[in-house]
Amino acid sequence: MTAPLIESAALATAFLEGTIRTATPLLLAASGELIVERAGLINIGLEGVILSGAFGAFFGAAHGGPAVGYSAAALAGALVMVVFAMCTLGMGADQIITGTALTLLALGTTGTLYRTLYGAGLAAVSISTGVTVEIPLLSRIPVLGRGLFAQPLVTYFAYVLIPITWWWFARTHAGLALRAIGERPAAAVAAGVPVRRYRLAATLAAGALGGVGGGVLVLAQAGTFVENMSAGRGFIAIAIVVLGRWQPLGVALATLLFSATTSLQYLAQGMGVNLPYQLLLALPYVATLAALAGIGGRVVPPAALARVD
Amino acid sequence: MIALWRGSLGSPYAITSGTLVRATPVMLTGLSVALAFRAGVFNIGAEGQLLAGAAAATAVSMLPVLGMSYASAPLALLAGAAAGGSWAGVAALLRMRFRVLEVISTILLNFVALYLVGYLVRGPLQEPLRIYPQSRSLALSARLPRLLPASRLHAGFLIALAAAVGAWCVLRYTAAGFRLRAVGANADASRSAGMIDVAATTTKAFVMSGALAGLAGAVELTGVTFALYENISPGYGYTGIAVALLARLDPLAVIASSLVFGALEAGAAAMQRDAGVPSVVVSVLEAIIVLGLIIAWPQTSKVSVRRTRQASVSSRMEI
Questions:
Q1: Is A265:A182 a contact under the CB 8 Å cutoff?
Q2: How far apart are the first and last CA of chain B?
Q3: What is chain B's pLDDT, residue by residue, as a tens digit (319 residues)?
Q4: What is the pLDDT of residues B177-229, one digit of tens each?
Q5: What is the pLDDT of residues A176-234, one digit of tens each?
Q6: Is A17 exposed, middle or buried (0-12, 13-18, 19+ CB in 10 A)?
Q7: What is the nearest CA distance from A3 to chain B, expressed in angstroms?
Q8: Phi, psi at B186, each rounded to 5°
Q9: What pTM value is reported for the model?
Q10: Dihedrals phi, psi of B146, to nearest 5 degrees
């Protein structure tokens, strides 16, 4: 094998690995948002959910290891969504403004807690990021193997989540009921579906998934908590749900599109492409906007989305 | 707590240099949000529009042609408003032409604006020594005049006040203001009435909202920071949402509510300085105020209901 060939194979592996690394937290968060949006609720506070999950993961892991960390992340995310449910389902408050306020709340709360518990120093506490697990045989596939199948455990959870959500929405009574709620809540009520209970369950599930997504950032990637470390991933995940046309497989594809753009941009930086890196950093956001414009008018959100009944 | 008081209202200096200076940008972003929400436009991109405004104002202030001219500051403010309006115009175009939810597009554009400023202050607009990621300081003649001796209060405060009164008059007494309120209250009814171009009204309101946020950026640059850098706005765009809601989307009430938030933020800065309490506490407080308000006054904030109704009528088909 010639040297340039080996080099380009290594680049392709790095590109894949980077794509999957970016995709993991996004896919988890977007799956949660998909569930809650199919129930007819839009959660703009996903950013705050992810951030709270990241802080929960950091706090949990610092006191009890990665498993406690992920549980704390799910719990923290669900807690934010409890507030969301109380305001929107409980008191009929506007969903978009509630979500915006929750993001602000999470930003302030996690920042304050972090500074009071761990001081204002940079990276005061660091925790070991989980080991990667190689899947036998699959990880040996040339080029693809190392990129896709030598990942932290949580990434495989994200992989498995795609068929599970698809199956759940398409093939179970509960999935059908949830979709009905998102389209026409009144009809669901008439059919005897406990709408409020389903919506509450959907918000909690979305919170837990978004929280774990935030946990990934700390436990599998950064190894520490940084203020505002979610860095817009929540909003990207919401855009991904639209881009994925509110379908589990579509969401997976849209996640890949965004992550590949992000990974490409890192690769371009690494290869010394002659563009200022801030412009490269903006690329994934611009690509998402362009993709949203590209499918605009041809997607139909769940009919009851963001409407209070 | 004492520090909060001292930094916000405890002395004439704290009031004029702390509270009023902090209230100025959030009065403008609050107006921006109020105007958009009244028109049924969910513009939560005031932050990005503010940054676009600050960047454009910097670029204009650096033009060698203007030199020591007194036209510099007014032109910078105009450029800021134009840039903010254009930045919002992108989101308006995406909504009108491509049906992209402005909630998502405006937030994504916030990030693009942030990276763009990051690029500008390390590239074309960087200070001549090329050490710090910020622009050259504005010439004295390019700055907004101070209003009082021994105080940081600048003319931008009066501009913000004028904008609030102006927005109130336009909403209340002009045909354009009536159209804006009608479309925001019920787009379908406005369309059926046949005398209102809903798309044009929405677009205009969106762009005006962006222009106000852009003006906030230009005012902050020419009145307070005198240089462009990445953290020029500590979330003034997001605070604007809280300001607008506390004012129940009424431009005149925005003046009062921006003073409340200005006092809070000035006090929080003092609290961090003197008592070591992290100033992010204020975002907790702001969020709790917003949540309390939308629960107390649910009708004020039912913007999303209006707009999805509008969207779903025009695009019903099978999923």
A1: no
A2: 54
A3: 677 777 777 777 777 778 999 999 999 999 999 999 999 898 989 999 999 999 999 999 988 776 667 788 899 999 999 999 999 999 999 999 888 888 889 989 999 999 999 999 998 888 888 888 899 888 888 889 888 877 889 999 999 999 999 999 999 999 999 999 988 888 888 888 877 888 999 999 999 999 999 999 999 999 999 999 988 988 899 889 889 988 889 999 999 999 999 998 888 878 777 777 777 777 788 888 888 887 777 665 555 444 444 443 333 322 2
A4: 999 998 888 888 888 887 788 899 999 999 999 999 999 999 999 999 999 99
A5: 999 989 888 888 888 888 989 999 999 999 999 999 999 999 988 888 888 888 888 99
A6: middle
A7: 36
A8: -165, 100
A9: 0.85
A10: -75, 150
Chain A CB within 8 Å of residue B96 CB: no
Neighbours of B296 (CB within 10 A): 10
For residue A192, give the DSSP letter.
Answer: T
User: Quick one: closest CA in B to A286, which residue?
Assistant: B112
CATH number, domain B2-308: 1.10.3470
Amino acid in position B92: A
Domain A3-127+134-295 adopts which CATH fold? ABC transporter involved in vitamin B12 uptake, BtuC (1.10.3470)
Distance CA A174, CA A185 (A): 14
Give burial (CB, 10 Å; 0-12/13-18/19+) of A137: exposed
What is the least distance, in Å, from the CA of A239 to any CA of chain B? Answer: 6
**B209 near B33, Cβ under 8 Å?**
yes
Contact A308 B294 (CB under 8 A): no
Cβ-based contacts of B294 with chain A (< 8 Å): 87, 93-94, 97-98, 101
> Is residue A300 within 8 Å of B315, Cβ to Cβ?
yes
Q: What is the ipTM of this complex?
A: 0.84
Q: Give dist(CA A118, CA A138) in Å, integer.
A: 41
- Shortest CA gap A280–chain B (Å): 9
The span from the CA of B28 to the CA of B211, in Å, is 10
Cβ atoms of B213 and B237 closer than 8 Å: yes
Region at A11 (left for phi over 0; alpha for psi -120 to 50; beta for the rest): alpha
> What are the domain boundaries of chain A?
3-127+134-295
Q: Which residues of A touch B118 (CB under 8 A)?
A: 278, 281
Among partner residues A91, A300, A302, which is closest to B295 by beta-carbon distance?
A: A91
Identify the sign of the CA torsion B128, B129, B133, B135.
negative
AA identity, residue A144: L
Every domain of chain B and the residues it spans:
2-308
| Cβ neighbours for B20, distance < 8 A, ≥ 6 positions apart | B153, B157, B259, B262
Contact A297 B98 (CB under 8 A): yes
